[in-house]
Amino acid sequence: MPDQIPFVDYLVLGDQPHLVANECTTCGARFFDRRNACASCFATEFKKVDVPTEGEVRAFTIVSMAAPGIPVPFVSATIDCQGTSVRANIINCDPTPEAVTLGMKVRLATYVLGDKGGVDAIGFGFEPVS
Amino acid sequence: MASDDVWILGIKMTKFGKYPDKDITDLAADATMAALADGGVTMKDVQLLAYGNLVGGTQGQSLQKQVGQTGIPVYNVANACATGATALRVAYMAIKAGEIDTGLAVGVEKLAGAGLLAGGSRGAEKDEWTPEGRFGAVAPVDGRIGTETMPGVFAQIGMEYGHKYGGTSFELFAKISEKNHAHSTLNPLAAYSKRFTLEQIMGDIMISYPNTRPMCSANCDGAAAAVLVSDAKLKTLSKEQQRRAVKISASILTTDPWEEACQVLPNVNTLTRNAAKQAYEKAGIGPEDLDLVELHDCFATAELVHYDNLMLCEEGGAADFFNSGATWRDGKTPVNVSGGLESKGHPIAATGIANVWEIAHHLRGEAGDRQIEGAKVGLAHVIGLGSACGIHVLEKSGL
């Protein structure tokens, strides 16, 4: 098995891939990026928390026109993972309004995004639970 | 005794469209000189220039070099699609602060032929995976973790509203676009003034479901400018100038307060609602008093949510409100009688002043074929992602 690297640093690989958030220890606000301080309460202490891998589609669009080099169509969505919102593509699903619906139950899935020097970059999306 | 009211003395927008033979400064100068003439003043009277040109990156000083270098301070402002409204508010605040009695705000953009705005922030590919940026991404994220494109972001904002309250569909969003394109046929300054059938709109090129091409704001060239004066200054001017002056009853600018999800999908709702509340309170006017509204329909999916955010309807009732016909020009609260950004066009930094011009044009009773009869109060709204929301409430002169 080749070496792997996660596409983003908030994706944790292994037997049970999942996302992690930076949670403010004062107010509980969650963020996925590197933080200077909390945007909600201005505190500066954070802890890593696991984000549930199942959720539902709260908003989506099917992108047919994108910047050069980006394969279309694809589904961009906001997933409500039991109270933590996540931005992701819907994958392993037809990119049509018939196949993707608001409120649809989805779960985290990973895929090989590319290979460089024998190392696979692993991306993530959410797929329908069916 | 003068009050501390601030007035629009002169205001103009250029026709929006394509100007291959004019540069940014030409367009800014056209709008500026027209606004000064409209107000019956010259650059000699102007004590401050607030200037916005978001994409082109020019400065107000270039405009001064063509229309009048008088040594006044220039504030070059940038605030995404709220840039024009921000320039207007800078001039407004300087008058409110008592520092000046006459200020000029200008917004200008050349965007004809520009494609998708935003998206595609893809760096150069490297030989090995190297985590970069605040997410430690080893490759560009646009297209892999959702979309950065504006049609896609605002499509999700409309869909999110539908998920929360129900009543939305591809057809409903397309009908909003149908209304605005129908309105545009009466606006000689619109970049596009062609009526579309619902079938044409739904059958056009899909950009980002449910937004097809005619449901997206039109990239184009254009400029708008406004001359603002204090109440004391206005009282020294002619009766005709006083009659045509339009009162700025509220000038509000907000940003998005932190809420869960707001850094995942931009929340354009709370900051607009906050701005609307402040504007209505400051103006002593309620949404039911508005004779017309120009709101930021950068995409058809956006117009729907702002009916609710501006409290033109009950919370959650935007679809029913639209279906009642309320926002057509003969409805209870006409929205975007100019044709909106989808047909009038959206030269970004000009938009926040051009919207105010549209309202002022009706309040002055000068809107010709598209005049909303007896208009006395109007509201102009813009939103820039990031986010910034600008709202101006305007009232007809009592004279």
Name the shape of chain A in a single word. globular
Structural class from helices and strands of chain A?
Answer: mainly beta
**How many angstroms separate the termini of chain A?**
29 Å
What's the number of extended β-strand segments of chain A? 10
Widest sheet of chain B: strand order? 3-2-4-7-1-8-11-10-9
Tell me the domain tally of chain A.
1
| CATH second-level architecture of the largest domain in chain B | 3-Layer(aba) Sandwich
Helix and strand sequence of chain A:
EEEEEEEEEE
Specify the helix fraction band of chain A. Answer: under 10%
Mean pLDDT of chain B: 96
Percent strand of chain B equals: 15-25%
Biggest pleated sheet of chain A: 6 strands, mixed
Tally of separate helices of chain A: 0
Cα radius of gyration of chain B in angstroms: 21 Å
Description of the molecule:
The complex is a heterodimer of chains A (130) and B (399). Chain A is an all-beta fold. Chain A has one domain. Chain A has strands at 3-6, 11-12, 18-24, 30-31, 46-51, 54-63, 74-81, 84-90, 105-116, 119-128. With 399 residues, chain B is α/β, with parallel strands linked by helices. In chain B, strand 2, helix 2 and strand 3 form a beta-alpha-beta unit. The longest helix of chain B has 16 residues, at 24-39. Chain B is globular, with a radius of gyration of 21 Å. The relative contact order of chain B is 0.20. Classes of the chains: A mainly beta (130), B alpha/beta (399). Chains A and B meet through strand 4, strand 6, strand 7, strand 8 and strand 9 of A and helix 4 and strand 5 of B.
What's the helix and strand layout?
The complex is a heterodimer of chains A (130) and B (399).
Chain A: E1 3-6, E2 11-12, E3 18-24, E4 30-31, E5 46-51, E6 54-63, E7 74-81, E8 84-90, E9 105-116, E10 119-128
Parallel strand pairs in A: 1-10
Antiparallel strand pairs in A: 2-3, 3-4, 3-5, 6-7, 6-9, 7-8, 9-10
Chain B: E1 6-13, H1 24-39, E2 49-52, H2 60-67, E3 74-77, H3 83-96, E4 102-110, H4 150-165, H5 170-184, H6 198-203, E5 206-209, E6 211-212, E7 221-230, H7 231-235, H8 239-244, E8 246-255, H9 270-283, E9 292-294, H10 300-309, H11 318-323, H12 340-343, H13 348-363, E10 377-384, E11 388-396
Parallel strand pairs in B: 2-3, 2-4, 9-10
Antiparallel strand pairs in B: 1-7, 1-8, 4-7, 5-6, 8-11, 10-11
